[in-house]
Amino acid sequence: MVLDRPKTDMSELWVERHRPGSVSEMRGQRAVVDRLVGYSQRGTFPHLLFAGPPGTGKTTAALALAKDIFEETVRQNLLEMNASDERGLDSIRNKVKQFARTAPLGGATFKVIFLDEADALTNDAQGALRRIMEQYAETCRFILSCNYSSKIIEPIQSRCAVFRFRPLEDDQMRTQINHVANSENVELDEDAADAIIHISLGDLRKAITALQVAAGMGDKVTRALVYETSATAPPEVLQGYLLACKEDGFQPARRRLRQILDEFGLAGTDLVNQLHRELGVTTFLTEETKLELTEWMADIDHRLVQGGGEYLQLDAMTARICSLLNQ
């Protein structure tokens, strides 16, 4: 059964779509937003599954859609839960089922349950959830948000319309970062904005956090300040380490590595991941060398995660890089 709200005139529809918090005001993710705007206009939607990397707008999209649908009664008809905190079978059977079985308020035709980080739910909890989704489909809609859709069981995925969120493009990130900086009267250098984009990897939440931390350290946000406050080494510093491995030998490269760790406050796994990213743009390494170094870095990263001694493992990586680059 399709549940529709009474039609409104165009002026009312425009006000609804452009008020603060509307789905139509979201930036980026146009393929997703266009479909959600259609749901907002019709006043109904099926069960939804939002999947994608963190900081790309999944939670914002879910809450904005609920606000568009319910307007003033959103608090009464929306249950927001973080599934990583309440991931067990009891939470699904008690809290979720109890909310789903009660009637919607304020003239709404259905309620919405938003489960954030749904990939943290246990298999037993997901098994109970799929039955609730089917049993109360007419009076309750579910919006599930996750980073890895492969961790959601197939019966739940087949009950949902799946939306794939992608990392934000650099131009979208730059527009939003500059907008936030201007709104907060923060002086932001252009190369500092580029640095924020570089370290955030399409994660807008991480980008805004980096801007906030850097802005708290001074009146002007510079490129050097961004890297200093984000525990990230600048690309030229990592390139300098690789060049030291090639031209200076093991001991100077080892000292350069320790200096990077101390200056930027990096953990061993952070340095390995950042160094791996720089391999792709390094011009003085052959493709065969990059392939071998990538395989070796993966091994070092695994050892560090398993509890291996940090300095010993990083020294082993440095020795391996020096050996490869001086053959």
How would you characterize the overall build of this protein?
With 327 residues, the protein is an alpha/beta fold. It has three domains: 155 residues, Rossmann fold, CATH 3.40.50; 60 residues, Helicase, Ruva Protein, domain 3; 91 residues, Up-down Bundle (Zinc Finger, Delta Prime, domain 3). It is 57% helix and 9% strand. A five-stranded parallel β-sheet has the order 2-3-4-1-5. Helix 6 links the parallel strand 3 and strand 4. Helix 2 runs parallel beside helix 3, helix 13 packs across helix 16 and helix 14 packs antiparallel against helix 15. The longest helix has 19 residues. The chain is elongated.
Question: Can you describe this structure in just a few lines?
Answer:
The protein has 327 residues and is of the alpha/beta class. The protein has 16 helices and seven strands. 57% of the residues lie in helices and 9% in strands.
